[in-house]
Amino acid sequence: MSEKRGLDNAVRGGGARAFGDGVLRYLRSPAHAGPVALAVAVGIGSGYGAVVFRWLIATAHQFFFGGMGAALPWLGRYYVVLVPAAGGLLVGLLVHFCAREAKGHGVPEVMSAVMEQGGRIRSRVSVVKSLASAICIGSGGSAGREGPIVQIGSALGSTLGQLLKLSEQRIRLLVACGAAGGIAATFNAPIAGVLFALEVILRDFSARSFGLVVLSSVSATVICHIYLGDSPAFQIATPYSLVSVREMALYLVLGVSAALAGRGFIWLLYRSEDVFEAQRMPEYVRPLAGGLLVGAIGIWYPQIFGVGYETINAVLNGQVSVGLLAALLGIKLCATSLTLGSGGSGGIFAPSLFIGCMLGGAFGSLAHAVWPEWTAASGAYALVGMGAVFAGAAHAPMTAVLILFEMTGDYRIIGPLMVATVVSSLLSEALSRESIYTLKLTRRGVDVLRRAQPDLLDAVPVAEAMNAEFESVSPDISMSDIMERFARGEVRSLPVVRKEDGHLIGIVSQSDAAEAVLRGEDEMPASEIMTPDPVTCYVDESLARALQRLSVRDVAALPVLDPSQEGRLVGMLRRRDIIGAYQRARTRRPEFATRVDRLYGSVPGARVFETVIGRSSPAANKEIQSLSLPPETLLVAIRREDRTLIPRGDTVLRPGDRVIALAQRERLSKLRRVFARRASEE
Q: Which residues contact 390 (CB under 8 A, 6 or more apart)?
């Protein structure tokens, strides 16, 4: 009997395993059913994530402003100075020791994961980001909830994709599904969630991507409606509309003003970040300092605490004076820059709406006072200003238009809203190509907007060029010992790693160590001088990406990490390592041709083309990206005097440069016409 029971259990166990394997094959299948099921699952998870996140914010707000206020009665109204500071300290500790990616406004980290890491986001990010942002916003930090929920939803999608061992392309798509679901659920705006994911995160409007992101967004919205209802985020008593055609001129002016406000917001935010990073204080203490300053402002202007939706609703219904509107415009700019620049955790979407609402409300109040017969009430201009400032800051006009429509349920003002947002976005892009999201990545060495330009180094992984025999230091080594290392070696920077696991925690440059010694801080440990979170690369990335980071940040070397072991340092990559790898790749032409075929599609009959740029050449003094190169042409290198340059889209060709390219035989004649010079071929 026992043997029979054991056999039955084994059969049942085998059946369960077979069923589980079947489910996994179904989900991993590239057929439509598998991706659809995953998109819906990510949407449902993002919806629940948004519900829990909003509950966490409410709980944190009650704890800090209810509990702390009752515990500090002798401070009177001045207790609010300590509330954001206490929240800032908790956020700083949580982010510093648990997940550095949770710092800031979240969306750039998701964009970086999609572009640079194949959609890989650590699973712990969703938990840490939820807690850190809820504490920051709930304690009065001037930030929004869209950035955190985008990162939370994206982390859920990435984790699911990694658990199922999906391809990088499908993981990226699940990350976008999570972002769409997060936006849809937190703002009750499913259409805007879709456009935000496609326009900002994925930067892909293909039919397949659109369909899956829509499913995720709708699934998250259903969860939101079940738990939070389906009413719009902003309630407008009287719908607004265009009173007179002459108003369009005023909305154009508002669009221009919004673009300037958006650019000012970007500048002030990152300027604040630079100021805090320059201070000699532990990284986890900076949010406390920012919180103290925000709390001091909040004594007189408590409207700047948190997301500020109550104040926005009041302005949309014309219940705020023009003087207070003008004051809150500047104060909110400063408060948000202090919160996020000091290392707080939260989004920039709600602050952008707040700033735009104050700008539009003040502008509309003045316009209506001067021309009451043919202008709408100030609330109409406040509504348009909200979308226009966000469009100017984020360079996302489609998302701005639709999210305002969904958050208000008011379609009558759509014409002026479209005009102002487009004007704001175009002017902002004309002033700078960087948005508030992409600038954060550019400052890290990731150029999101760089035009793709194939080159040899795209075919060579970092693992082939890095130096695996490198010198590192421990966090407790003194500056005098570090200077001795620099004196006897050829390195200009040293990575700082933990002894127990070899994980990178920072980097010390020669100039930083020399300054410390000159200040008499010879015994200062490396952990106090090092730059935390240095620019890094991974062993499986291409040398082209690594070189781009080196160029943007102008650093001497990049630490190389192993993506399979979080933070473990496995090598160092210097500029001369890249040049050496390039030279070796040139000598291995058959292997190189195979890699090029694999990266850019089949290139039958590929030939090497070389030419020297003459003074009369039509390519002289022009950027490579402006040349009409034949399809599938691969620029390999540029020899300039005694240097070898890696071709990039913005590289300017000079007379005397020797250009080396790879092209099909039948396209060589067109290449000659582009450069207008006889060339030798190999």
A: 262, 349, 352, 353, 356, 396, 399, 400, 403, 421
CATH, domain range 247-443? 1.10.3080.10
At 340, give phi and psi (nearest 5°).
Answer: -80, -35
d(CA 50, CA 151): 11
Name every residue whose Cβ is closer than 8 Å to that of residue 406 and which is 6 or more positions away in sequence: 187, 188, 189, 190, 191, 192, 232
How many CB atoms sit inside 10 A of residue 429's CB? 16
Assigned CATH for 28-228: 1.10.3080.10
Over the stretch 295-353, which tens digit does the pLDDT of each residue have?
999 999 999 998 999 999 999 998 999 999 999 999 999 999 999 999 898 889 899 99
The domain segmentation of the chain, as residue ranges, is 1-27, 28-228, 247-443, 456-582, 596-681
Token pair for 453? 């330009």
The amino acid at 133: S
Helix 309-316 / helix 349-370 crossing angle, nearest 10 deg: 20
- The amino acid sitting at 448 is V
Quote the CA–CA distance of 404 and 189 in Å, as a whole number.
Answer: 9
Query: What's phi and psi for 644, nearest 5 deg?
Result: -115, 120
Strand order in the sheet with 537-538: 537-538, 557-561, 569-574
Beta strands in 535-613 (DSSP E): 537-538, 557-561, 569-574, 606-612
596-681 fold: Alpha-Beta Plaits (3.30.70)
The 10s digit of each residue's pLDDT in 546-598 is: 877 776 666 778 898 887 676 788 888 887 787 777 766 656 544 444 444 44
The domain over range 456-582 is classified in CATH as 3.10.580.10: yes
Break the chain down into helix, strand, coil percent, rounded to 5. Answer: 65, 10, 30
Q: Which residues contact 633 (CB under 8 A, 6 or more apart)?
A: 454, 661, 662, 663, 667, 671
CA angle 80, 301, 405 (to 5 degrees): 115
Nearest alpha carbon to residue 637 among 655, 619, 610, 675 = 610
